[in-house]
Amino acid sequence: MITASLKNYRISPRKVRVVADMVRGKGVAEAKLIVSAAVKKAKHPIGDLIDSAIANAKNNFGIEADNLFIKEIRVDGGVILKRYMPVSRGSSHPIKKRTSHIKVTLAPKDVSKSKEVKIKAEKTVKSTKKEKVTKVTKTKK
After folding, report:
1. What domain count does the chain have?
2. Residue 141 lies in a domain
3. What CATH number did the domain enclosing 49 receive?
4. For residues 82 and 96, is the Cβ–Cβ distance under 8 A?
5. Does some domain include residue 114?
6. Which residues of 70-96 are buried (b: 16+ CB within 10 A; e: fewer)?
7. CA distance readout (Å), 93 to 87, 88, 89, 99, 134
């Protein structure tokens, strides 16, 4: 699997997930187009992360970007910076400055189809084995 990750990015995960949901499951070219047209601040790190994952695929595995799609994009919470805002009567209110961990996983388009075919083939093999076993037991009786 081809991955790229970004840790402790200073935008809350809730805001980053909006952009991540737009590109999940899309082809790489379509995802880059969607990210470039988005009107959210989180489009920059996600766009750069997709570019990084494409570069990883090309350099490490020799796979071209045309055959890739975004298999998984996860946005998890990172370290929370705790700050305080002074308010009246000498007291304070807490402020949580949240960070995000973003992980993008790419996969070739053909692999997903071949896995489905493989699973179907395994199911048919299992069902034929069961039929053979039942036939053998019937003939012995």
Report:
1. 1
2. no
3. 3.90.470.10
4. yes
5. no
6. bbebebeebeeeeeeeeeeeeeeeeee
7. 7, 10, 12, 20, 71
What is the token pair recorded at 59? 């350099």
pLDDT digits (tens, 9 = 90+) for 82-92: 999 999 999 99
Q: Are strands 100-108 and 2-9 parallel, antiparallel or unpaired?
A: antiparallel
Helices (H) and strands (E) in the chain, counts: 4, 5
Residue 44 lies in a domain: yes
Q: What is the pLDDT of residues 19-50, one digit of tens each?
A: 999 999 999 999 999 999 999 999 999 999 99
Q: What is the 3-state secondary structure (H, E, C) of 21-83?
A: HHHCCCEHHHHHHHHHHCCCCCHHHHHHHHHHHHHHHHHHHCCCHHHEEEEEEEEEECCCEEE
- Gap between the terminal Cα atoms of the chain: 51
